[in-house]
Amino acid sequence: MRTIGVTGASGGVGSRVVRELLDRPQPPAVVALARRPEALPATEARRADYDDPASLRSAFAGLDTLVFISSDGVVETMCRHHEHVVAAAIDVGVPHVVYTSIVDIAPDSRFYYSPGHQDTETWLRASGVACCFARTSIFADFFVETWLAPARATGTLAVNAGAGEMSLVTRDDTAAALAAVAADGLEGVIDVTGPEALTGADVAAIAGVEYQPLADEEYRRRLAAEGNPGWLVDAFSSMFRSVVEGRFAVVSDDVARLTGRRPQPFAEFLRDEIARS
Ligand SMILES: NC(=O)c1ccc[n+]([C@@H]2O[C@H](COP(=O)([O-])OP(=O)(O)OC[C@H]3O[C@@H](n4cnc5c(N)ncnc54)[C@H](OP(=O)(O)O)[C@@H]3O)[C@@H](O)[C@H]2O)c1
Fold first, then answer.
1. pLDDT per residue over 199-216, tens digit each?
2. d(C-alpha 153, C-alpha 135), whole Å
3. Please, what are the domains in the chain?
4. Could you tell me which of 25, 108, 188, 225 has the fewest CB atoms within 10 Å of its CB?
5. Residue nearest to atom 24 of ligand 1 (CA)
6. Residues within a 6 A CB radius of ligand 1
7. Rounded distance between C-alpha atoms, residue 250 and residue 231, angstroms
8. Residue nearest ligand 1's atom 1 by CA
9. How far apart are CA 105 and CA 248, in angstroms?
10. Does the global pTM surpass 0.90?
């Protein structure tokens, strides 16, 4: 039986990947990897702290596949974490890695996290380990939590997304695709996107709020005035700049092909989210 480890198993995507793998008709052995494994529901869990290389080497022992959920926060920290994960996977001889990259991966992107994902893909490619780069679009859940929930309170979605399109994809669909790739040991590149590309105006209309496209500097000024740290101002404003440039507009059939079900349209997802809240 194959053994699949999932990092970030306490998080939104990682926890769903663990569940998807365990729910398969012939589940592999699943090892949940997290900083605080004691907080995870009953399944084999090991401590794997991206900032503790020794913990990563122990945690990765015996894995056939590692689902590597990207780190977050300040980009220099993310890159240090990723270097540790790749080095540990190489040291231990993990044969297959599935990495959550980003669709906005072109070298000329100005998105805050794009160079970190480019570097991580480069390190993994150079390692000789069999890899699948699962390049994700913007998570629908993340968009709702971060921008639409406040917009529904104020009545206005005000971001610097212009008329750019986003192929919002749910964490559920992302996790299902990652689990399929991991379970089947697939290699290559997949684009993990929703079924359609929507503008800020489309998303606002679906949510029943006004859309106010902002200039980059105005959005940055508002984020800073709300007390957000500089890196977050850079991350959010550069993401929407990439949206304007069409870098998050890709719509792929990879999720449907891998999971056997169509990815959830945003309007349906939002309706379900509102019903749940
Ligand atoms: N495409 C998008 O729209 C989008 C949006 C946001 C983020 N992302 C990226 O996608 C990833 C997964 O998204 P998500 O929604 O699952 O994020 P999430 O719910 O915040 O989960 C992040 C996971 O990373 C873990 N982590 C953080 N620092 C760690 C460390 N030092 N060592 C080990 N684990 C650590 C967290 O563990 P703890 O529970 O211990 O904190 C958590 O399990 C994010 O980490 C980020 O790279 C993508």
1. 999 999 999 999 999 999
2. 32
3. 3-136+171-192+250-263 (3.40.50.720)
4. 25
5. 8
6. 8, 10-14, 34-36, 48-51, 69-72, 81, 100, 136, 138-139, 142, 171
7. 26
8. 138
9. 10
10. yes
